Recover the amino acids of this structure.
C-alpha cells in the first residue's frame, strides 16, 4: 500500500505538466516551510510578520525566531537544438555549477498591550543564483547571474475590538530592502579576444521601500481566513562594468553601470481549518505581479560605443503568475510538544518560453515538504523542514535569443531554526 | 489515532517520493533526432585543411574554431553527441592578425597586424581522435600520408606543427584516425592547398599536376568508402574569388594609387609626376600590367614601401613588381593563352572534374564551392540580416584574405546542408547567419 502510494506520487510528479515564480523566495520561515508556505491564515508563529502581519496580534510576551534554509538547485541543459541556428549544436548535457545558497530568517516580537504586538523581521524574499561554465555552449547567453537581497520589516499587529462577528486582526509592516547585490556576466563573441566576458557587479544604492498589510478573520473557532498584500519594491543597483579584453575603443574600461529591479507585488488569500483538536489544514492562493519585470535595463554612466547607447535593454516579458499552496500541521503527535507538518504546492512560472534563457531557466514547479518542531522546554522549540522542488522539464524551441534546448531543474531545501518565547 | 497514522503514511510516502525523484534527475522524453533522411549522422567527422579546421586571420583559435563550418553543420545534426575539435585558446597559433582594440574597428587606420602571443591547446588530452581532423596547410596527399617527389610525408608532417596538434599520437594520418572514429558521415574538403601555393606565390611554387590529383583523390575516396560512411565532398573555388588575389588591386584603385587606363588597357601608377604604366615580372620577362593581372595581398608591403619612397616605383622593366607578388593573367590583345591565372584556372577545373566524378560515382553529396563563390563575387556580397557583407577581409573573409570569417563559414555550412538535404533526402535546417557573432580578432 505504502509502495503503491509512493509510486503513484512519483508518476504524478514525473509526468506533471507544469508552471513557476521567477526569483521570489517564499521560504521565509522554517515552520512555514514545513507546510510549504500555506501559512497566511494559520499564522501561529512569529514569521507571520512575513506571511501575514495581522497574525502578529495575539502573540504574547517576547518571541524570537531564527533559522536558515539552504537552497540547493540543480539544473541541466541539453542541446542546443539545431533550430538554435548559430549555436554549434549538439545533444550534449551541460550541468549548471552546483551552488548552495543560505537564506537566513530572523523574527522578534513584543506584545505592547493586549491585542497589540510589534515586531521586526529579517528575511530574503528575492534571490537568484545561476552559474554556468565560462566556456559552455550558452556562454553568450549567460555565465553567472546572481541577485541577493535582505529585507528588514518593522511591523505592527492589532486585534480590533469585538464586534460580535468573530475575531478580526489587522497588521501592517514597512518593507525595507536593506541590502542587495546583483551580478551578471556573459561572453561577447563579436570580438575574438582572450577574455571576452562582460560582467556587472552592483550593490544596492539606497534602501528600497515598500509595505505589507494583512487581515485575519476568524468567523468561528474552526475557520480562519487570511489576506495579505505586499507592495512592489523598487531597488536600484549600481557598480562597475568589466569588459575583459574587449576592444577599449568600443567598450571603455572603468565604465560604471547599474540597473533597477522592480521586485513585484503579491497578494495572498488563505483559508485555514482546524479539522480536529490537533490537525489544522490550510490552502493559500498566492498571486505575483511579475508583469512589472518586463525588461532588464542596464544603464551605464557613459555611452558605450559598442551599444551605441548608454543603456542595454533586455526584454524579460514576465507574466503575472500564481501559486497554490496546501499544507497541514499535526500537533502533539505521539508525544507532547512534537508537531509534524507537510505540504504540497504548485508554482506557475511567470517566464514565457520565448524569453527563457539560461540566466534563470524557470519552469512550472511542484513542491513537496515535510517539517517537524519539538518543544524542548516551554521557552525553546527546534524547527526543521525539508522541501523538494521538481520543475517541469522545459523544452525551448522559441527563444527570442535563438538558444534552444531542454532544461531540467530540481532543488532540495533543508532548513533548521529555533523559536523562543519569553 | 487514525489521523496520526494517515499523516505518518503521508510523510513516509513523501520521503520515498523525494528520494526517488532525486535519482530521476532528468526527464528523458525529448528526441534529438534530426531528419537525417537516408544518411546517418550519429558520428560525424570532417577531413580537410585550414578551411575545415576553422583557421582564420592567419591563426587557429578557439572562437573561430567554434564557428568552423563542420562544427556548424554538425550542430544542425541534432543526433551528434560530441563534435570535438582541437581547440586552441585565443589568440591561437599562427600569429593572428588582429585589430588594435583601442581604435574603433571601422577606423581605416586600424589595420590588422600579427600578434606575437600564442594560445594553448585546450583539449589535447581527448583520448580519441577529434571529429574535426582539419589540419591547416594539409594537402591532398597528407590524408593518406603519401610521399611526393622531394617531399616525403614524414618531412611534411614534421615541418607543420598543426599535424601534431590535430593528430597527436593517435594515428599517423588523417585517414588512420578517420578509421578509428568509425564515422557514419564524413565532410571531406582537400585539394585547395595543392593549387593555392602556386597562386599565392605568383606562380613561383609548383602545383600538384591534375593527373596526380585525380589518382590521389580516388585513393582518398577509397579510404572513405572503406569507412562505410556517407559523405559530402567540396570542390575548389576559382583562384580569383579569394581576396588574397583580387583585393589589393581593387583597394589600390579605390585609393587612387593605381588606375586602369581604358584606352591603353594598362594599369598605371599614380605619382606626383603623373601616371606611368606599371611593369610586372612574369615567367617570360617583364611586361606592363593589364586587366587580367592581379596583385597578391602579399604585395601590400611592397606598395607601402613604394608609397613611402623607400623602393623604386615599378614604372620601368628593370623595377618591375617581382613575379612572386603578381598573378599574371592572359593578355587579350594579342591574345596569349599562357599565363599563371589561366593555368591555375585550368588546374582547378581539372581538380573539380575529378571531385565531381568521385561524388557521382559514390553517390556522395557535393558542395559546389566554385559556383557559390563565383555567385557571391558577382552579387557583390550576401545580405545577412540588415546588412550586406562583401567577400572581403573583415566581412565574409577573415583578415588573411584566404580563409572565411564566421559568417563565411556560416555560408559554407548552409551550402553543405543544402547539398546533404538534396543528396540524402534529409531535412536539416538552415543556419540563421545574422545570429552568428562576428568574432573579429582584436588585441589590446
Amino acid at each position: 500500500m505504502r509502495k503503491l502510494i509512493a509510486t503513484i506520487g512519483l508518476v504524478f510528479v514525473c509526468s506533471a505538466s507544469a508552471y513557476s515564480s521567477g526569483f521570489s523566495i517564499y521560504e521565509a520561515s522554517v515552520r512555514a516551510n514545513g507546510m510549504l508556505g500555506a501559512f497566511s491564515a494559520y499564522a501561529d508563529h512569529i514569521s507571520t510578520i512575513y506571511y501575514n502581519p495581522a497574525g502578529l496580534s495575539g502573540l504574547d510576551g517576547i518571541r524570537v525566531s531564527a533559522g536558515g534554509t539552504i537552497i540547493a538547485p540543480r539544473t541541466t541543459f541539453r542541446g542546443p537544438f539545431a533550430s538554435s541556428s548559430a549555436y554549434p549544436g549538439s545533444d550534449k548535457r551541460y550541468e549548471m555549477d552546483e551552488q548552495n545558497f543560505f537564506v537566513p530568517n530572523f523574527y522578534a516580537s513584543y506584545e505592547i498591550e493586549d491585542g497589540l504586538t510589534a515586531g521586526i523581521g529579517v528575511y530574503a524574499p528575492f534571490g537568484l543564483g545561476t552559474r554556468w561554465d565560462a566556456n559552455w555552449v550558452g556562454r553568450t547567453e549567460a555565465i553567472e547571474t546572481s541577485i541577493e537581497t535582505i529585507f528588514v520589516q518593522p511591523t505592527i499587529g492589532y486585534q480590533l475590538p469585538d464586534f460580535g462577528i468573530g475575531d478580526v486582526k489587522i497588521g501592517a509592516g514597512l518593507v525595507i530592502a536593506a541590502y542587495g547585490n546583483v551580478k551578471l556576466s556573459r561572453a561577447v563573441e563579436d570580438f575574438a579576444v582572450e577574455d571576452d566576458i562582460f560582467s556587472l557587479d552592483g550593490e544596492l544604492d539606497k534602501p528600497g521601500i515598500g509595505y505589507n498589510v494583512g487581515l485575519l478573520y476568524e468567523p468561528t473557532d474552526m475557520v480562519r481566513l487570511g489576506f495579505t498584500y505586499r507592495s512592489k519594491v523598487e531597488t536600484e543597483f549600481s557598480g562597475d562594468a568589466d569588459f575583459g579584453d574587449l576592444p577599449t575603443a568600443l567598450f571603455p574600461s572603468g565604465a560604471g553601470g547599474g540597473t533597477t529591479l522592480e521586485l513585484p507585488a503579491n497578494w495572498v488569500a488563505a483559508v485555514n481549518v482546524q479539522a480536529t483538536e490537533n490537525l489544522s489544514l490550510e490552502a493559500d492562493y498566492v498571486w505575483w505581479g511579475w508583469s512589472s519585470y518586463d525588461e532588464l535595463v542596464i544603464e551605464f554612466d557613459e555611452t558605450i560605443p559598442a551599444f551605441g547607447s548608454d543603456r542595454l535593454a533586455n526584454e524579460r516579458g514576465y507574466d503575472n503568475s500564481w501559486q497554490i499552496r496546501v499544507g497541514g500541521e499535526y500537533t502533539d503527535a505521539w508525544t507532547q510538544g512534537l508537531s509534524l507538518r507537510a505540504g504540497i504546492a504548485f508554482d506557475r512560472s511567470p517566464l514565457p518560453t520565448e524569453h527563457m534563457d539560461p540566466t534563470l531557466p524557470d519552469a512550472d514547479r511542484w513542491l513537496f515538504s515535510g517539517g517537524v518542531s519539538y518543544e524542548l522546554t516551554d521557552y525553546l522549540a527546534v524547527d526543521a523542514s525539508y522541501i523538494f522542488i521538481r520543475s517541469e522539464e522545459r523544452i525551448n524551441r522559441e527563444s527570442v535569443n535563438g538558444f534552444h534546448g531542454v532544461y531540467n531543474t530540481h532543488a532540495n531545501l533543508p532548513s533548521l531554526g529555533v523559536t523562543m518565547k519569553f | 489515532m487514525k489521523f496520526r497514522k494517515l499523516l505518518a503514511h503521508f510523510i513516509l510516502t513523501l520521503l520515498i517520493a523525494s528520494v526517488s525523484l532525486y535519482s530521476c534527475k532528468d526527464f528523458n522524453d525529448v528526441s534529438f533526432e534530426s531528419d537525417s533522411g537516408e544518411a546517418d549522422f550519429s558520428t560525424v567527422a570532417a577531413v580537410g585543411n585550414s578551411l575545415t579546421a576553422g583557421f582564420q586571420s592567419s591563426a587557429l583559435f578557439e572562437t573561430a574554431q567554434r564557428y568552423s563550418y563542420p562544427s556548424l553543420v554538425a550542430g544542425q545534426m541534432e543526433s551528434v553527441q560530441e563534435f570535438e575539435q582541437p581547440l586552441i585558446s585565443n589568440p591561437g597559433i599562427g600569429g593572428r592578425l588582429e585589430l588594435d582594440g583601442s581604435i574603433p574597428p571601422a577606423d581605416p587606420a586600424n589595420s590588422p597586424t600579427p600578434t606575437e602571443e600564442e594560445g594553448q591547446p585546450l583539449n589535447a588530452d581527448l583520448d580519441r581522435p577529434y571529429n574535426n581532423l582539419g589540419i591547416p596547410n594539409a594537402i591532398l596527399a597528407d590524408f593518406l600520408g603519401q610521399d611526393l617527389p622531394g617531399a616525403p610525408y614524414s618531412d611534411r608532417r614534421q615541418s607543420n606543427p598543426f599535424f601534431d596538434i590535430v593528430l597527436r599520437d593517435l594515428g599517423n594520418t588523417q585517414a588512420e584516425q578517420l578509421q578509428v572514429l568509425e564515422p557514419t558521415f564524413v565532410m571531406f574538403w582537400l585539394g585547395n592547398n595543392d593549387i593555392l601555393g602556386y597562386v599565392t606565390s605568383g606562380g613561383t611554387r609548383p602545383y600538384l599536376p591534375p593527373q596526380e590529383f585525380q589518382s590521389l583523390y580516388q585513393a582518398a575516396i577509397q579510404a572513405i568508402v572503406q569507412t562505410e560512411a556517407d559523405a559530402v565532398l567540396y570542390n575548389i573555388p576559382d583562384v580569383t574569388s579569394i581576396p588574397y588575389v583580387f583585393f589589393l588591386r581593387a583597394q589600390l584603385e579605390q585609393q587612387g594609387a593605381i588606375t586602369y587606363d581604358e584606352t591603353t588597357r594598362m594599369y598605371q601608377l599614380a605619382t606626383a609626376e603623373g601616371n606611368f604604366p606599371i611593369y610586372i615580372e612574369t615567367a617570360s620577362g617583364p611586361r606592363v600590367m593589364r586587366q587580367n593581372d592581379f596583385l597578391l595581398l602579399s604585395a601590400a608591403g611592397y606598395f607601402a614601401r613604394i608609397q613611402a619612397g623607400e623602393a623604386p616605383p615599378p614604372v620601368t622593366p628593370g623595377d618591375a613588381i617581382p613575379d612572386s607578388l603578381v598573378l599574371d593573367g592572359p593578355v587579350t590583345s594579342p591574345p596569349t593563352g599562357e599565363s599563371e591565372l589561366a593555368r591555375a584556372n585550368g588546374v582547378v577545373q581539372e581538380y573539380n572534374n575529378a571531385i565531381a566524378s568521385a561524388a557521382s560515382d559514390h553517390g556522395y553529396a557535393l558542395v559546389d564551392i566554385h559556383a557559390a563563390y563565383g555567385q557571391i563575387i558577382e552579387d557583390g556580397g550576401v545580405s545577412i540580416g540588415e546588412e550586406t557583407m562583401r567577400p572581403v577581409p573583415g566581412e565574409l573573409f577573415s583578415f588573411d584574405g584566404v580563409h572565411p570569417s564566421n559568417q563565411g563559414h556560416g555560408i559554407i555550412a548552409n551550402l553543405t546542408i543544402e547539398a546533404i538535404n538534396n543528396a540524402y533526402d534529409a531535412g536539416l535546417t538552415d543556419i540563421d547567419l545574422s545570429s552568428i557573432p562576428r568574432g573579429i580578432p582584436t588585441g589590446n
